[in-house]
Amino acid sequence: MKLIIAVVIVALGCFTACGFASSPAPTTAPISQPIPNPAIDMPGYLQISAEAAKDRETHRLTEEQFLDMSRQPGVIVLDCRSKQKFDQLHIAGAVNLSFPDIAVESLAKTLPDKNARILIYCNNNFRNAEKAFPSKLPSASLNISTYIALYNYGYRNVYELGPQLDPAKSILTFESTQPAQTPKP
Question: Per-residue confidence of the chain (185 residues) as pLDDT tens digits?
């Protein structure tokens, strides 16, 4: 019995010394003081999000309303999906500004008039077109993020496509701007 215990102790020592034993996960102490960064404002974001949510309640459109508004002079249909997804399929005439690229300078260039009527839509407005419009979690819908971002930058004339539609059956017109593929010989 003593021999077995001695062998186990030696084996454990070798196991640990050779680096095979798992070391405890590093622990970090809870942060007691906020880490200052004047370029990030979570309380401000939550406040503006609540304001935008209230405003959004009266700015959601049916498919017919969206189509009618999109035909009015000066109206901008904005698609904030990636350039790749936009090029695959988008509402005809839409302007693309990928959500990660929304910033002071890009908005001033793409949407210089903060009073212009802007119509938005996202992946979750469409079904049966997963390649171009991959589904997101409802709480992570790009419409929500886009609406809040535009509201935060001072755009107050933003309207959102409300329903979920099948592009093949929609009254909206869709187009692709993907470069044509050259057949391989």
Answer: 443 444 334 344 444 444 545 555 666 777 788 899 999 999 999 999 999 999 999 999 999 999 999 999 999 999 999 999 999 999 999 999 999 999 999 999 999 999 999 999 999 999 999 999 999 999 999 999 999 999 999 999 999 999 999 999 999 999 999 876 655 65
Question: Shortest CA distance to 85 belongs to which of 144, 133, 135?
Answer: 133
User: In this structure, which amino acid lies at residue 64?
Assistant: E
DSSP assignment of 70-101 equals HTSTT-EEEE-S-HHHHHHSEETT-EE--GGG
DSSP H or E run through 159: strand 158-161
Among 160, 149, 152, CA closest to 56 = 160
Rounded to 5°, angle at Cα 130 from 129 and 132:
75
100 is written with which tokens? Answer: 């990660």
d(CA 87, CA 96): 9
Secondary structure of residue 175 in the 3-state scheme: strand
Identify the structural domains of the chain with CATH numbers, from first to last: 64-174 (3.40.250.10)
Based on its alpha-carbon atoms, the radius of gyration of the chain, rounded to whole angstroms, reads 26
pTM: 0.80
Q: Are 141 and 123 in contact (CB under 8 A)?
A: yes
